[in-house]
Input
Amino acid sequence: MFLNDSDCVTEHDFQRISEIVHKHCGINLHDGKKELVRARIAKRLRVSGLRTAAEYLDHVFADPTGKEFTCFIDSLSTNLTSFFREIGHFDYLTGTHLPAMLARKRKQGASRIRVWSAGCSTGEEPYSLALTLLHATGDAAGWDIKLLATDISTQVLSTAKAGIYDKSRVDSVPPALKAKYLTPVRTGDKSASQVIPAVRNLIQFAYLNLMEEWPFSGPFDFIFCRNVMIYFD
Output
């Protein structure tokens, strides 16, 4: 085995990885991402029992199922998120956009609300949006609410669909919303919280590579596409 992660990923390997990822999903792995790439690839090498990035990439493309390619892309995706992250966006949503939108729909006699979370990661963003909408509409009484939540990482989508989060992950949820829409559960020997089914059922989680054809035409009442475009050139 190698003494450190940098030994297993050469400069040529990094350039090859960058080109593959950019072509597939548009993510720009510039030189500032070298250490991240080396650490993530080193982890895949440990899992696969291979020694070098070159061997690993050959292994990725030799897999006829495409599963290892999915793991490869998943490993290089950044999935930092939290409930009500960047609260200023939610303040604008609740204080400005939603009141005007709901008033307009009531005037039109319309009840359909459609929202897209593009780059939903482990689900905290779409669940935050769902809780916000439920609070604003009085638990959706008389409203037809659906949220689409997409991500390129199949791994984070599995977490999002389950809607189970450690206690520390839900600390940013307002107490009233937490008491109403999250329920205590156990994960092994740890305490956690799970988003209740009534909220989970409002959201459709789906894989989507933003570089490929989008399988929907909208329209959406609003779209959250935050901390996504920063990864594109």
Summary: The mean pLDDT is 89.
